[in-house]
């Protein structure tokens, strides 16, 4: 039974841009579900505007992006900027995919909270969320 | 938390802020009482949207069909909200809500609002939460509300209890052949749709359905059986025509009035059950003596009556 006191964490996950590598995002979505989170998967070929719009309608606290196309340096910041434009900077952005270490450092400076690269154990992702949302680890 | 007593939520809601609507629905989902004030305040300007429910087995194409209906309604200039429910994991309580995938082309349309809900994430049941959400969506200005729910467990019955018109979606695939139709579905279906009519066997399914319905007791409304190819937007106009015809039937026959009264009664019963459950839980927490007696006597009925008889 979900607690009525805490706000359950809802996470919108998406593949942005022209990138068909959806295996990782699906595996992560399943792991998050099994950890008790509500995951709203919006599918492939999303634009930053679509993802943010979905997050607002779904009252999500988190946006999770998965990018393997090499376009991460434009797409991640575009989502962060769109959140600013929609006055929704309380929604955090994290994600994963094929992203070099140097780029991760740069992306963090631009407002992306956390990035997981290939080979990350799923439990690490769950643990990170639990720490990030200690009051409502799950439903 | 501040959000629970958000004094500006109402103002933001009234100004058409989608986030305020989304937040209010979250409050409903977790049965946060602060949303009651919002509902009270909104009541005067609340209009009642038309509510159509789509139910059927997973994979029958409900989301694709709803997406197609949304497109049609947008062409008719109606604003439309979709409440899509998927089951939660019975183990973790978490969920992957994937209905949106099929509807993302409407993502940037301000006259379309899509909300995914975990079916089990509701104390007091799906119908309770959807009813309240529908009222908020009406107050926000939506003309039409579409419910999508997977036909497993009780959820399709709960949707039928809330929707004006219930559309049961089947496919030509074997898994949901007519013999497999769950008991009770005949009673709730106002319209049958055989989707994926591009696949072999849909005429057989329609014929089987027709045969089955001919055995049903005579009623004023005979559920039509329609064929659609949701992925190609085919048959969708006829489907919506049938929804409107059913709506007219409800009005003309006086059932619309009767239904809305029945719903208020049902909802009152559900809310009363919820409040009673909350009181019982609280009483057992606050009164260790009562809890001790319950454990010693093992008499939940007597304890429940005692709790409900108590003055507050
Ligand atoms: C499988 C695969 C494919 C499959 C994809 C199947 C599918 N539906 O997913 C197919 C064969 C279709 C494919 C095609 C292509 N691929 Co490919 N593919 C791979 C491969 C071998 C594995 C990817 C994978 O599924 N890993 C398993 C999952 C579980 O891991 P993951 O996605 O990394 O996810 C983990 C983390 O990144 C993170 N994560 C990922 N997403 C998210 C999201 C959130 C919210 C969070 C929190 C975490 C998170 O957590 C996961 C768990 O640890 C990689 C190489 C590699 N070693 O990564 C190349 C790779 C990604 N592909 C590549 C390329 C170039 C292509 C193609 C363009 C052409 C080609 N050369 O084959 C096409 C493009 C297809 C398209 N439409 O986009 C390159 C990308 C290069 C780059 N970006 O710099 C790679 C890196 C191979 C390489 N070394 O060149 N590919
Ligand atoms: N062949 C065919 N496939 C369809 C049709 N409508 C939907 N689908 C496909 O059926 C699958 C399930 O659709 P979805 O809308 O998610 O079903 P739901 O689980 O009932 O919501 C998807 O792959 C759709 O593309 C149709 O009319 N014909
Ligand atoms: Mg669906």
H and E order of chain A: EHEHEHEHEH
Rg of chain A, Cα atoms, Å: 14 Å
Largest interface: A-B, 33 and 33 residues
What is the CA-CA span between the terminal residues of chain B? 27 Å
Tell me what the CATH architecture of chain A is: 3-Layer(aba) Sandwich
Structural class of chain A: alpha/beta
Give the key terms.
heterodimer; A: 139 residues; alpha/beta; Rossmann fold; five-stranded parallel beta sheet; 5 strands; 18% strand; disordered N terminus; B: 312 residues; 3 domains; seven-stranded parallel beta sheet; 12 helices; globular; binds cobalamin; binds guanosine-5'-diphosphate; binds magnesium ion
Describe the structure.
The complex is a heterodimer of chains A (139) and B (312). Chain A has a single domain, classed as Cobalamin-binding domain (Rossmann fold). Chain A has five helices and five strands; from the N terminus they run βαβαβαβαβα. In chain A, α1 packs across α5 and α2 crosses α3. Chain A is globular and about 30 Å long. At the A-B interface, α1, β2 and α2 of A face α2, β3 and β4 of B. The complex binds cobalamin, guanosine-5'-diphosphate and magnesium ion (MG).
Short description:
The complex is a heterodimer of chains A (139) and B (312). With 139 residues, chain A is an alpha/beta fold.
What is the strand and helix layout of this fold?
The complex is a heterodimer of chains A (139) and B (312).
Chain A: E1 10-15, H1 23-34, E2 38-41, H2 48-57, E3 62-67, H3 72-85, E4 92-97, H4 101-109, E5 114-116, H5 122-132
Parallel strand pairs in A: 1-2, 1-3, 3-4, 4-5
Chain B: H1 9-14, H2 18-29, H3 34-42, E1 50-56, H4 62-75, E2 80-86, E3 95-97, E4 112-118, H5 126-140, E5 144-150, H6 155-160, E6 165-170, H7 185-188, E7 191-194, H8 202-214, E8 225-227, H9 236-253, H10 255-286, H11 288-297, H12 300-309
Parallel strand pairs in B: 1-5, 1-6, 2-4, 2-5, 6-7, 7-8
Helix pairs in contact in B: 2-5, 10-11
The structure holds cobalamin (B12), guanosine-5'-diphosphate and magnesium ion.
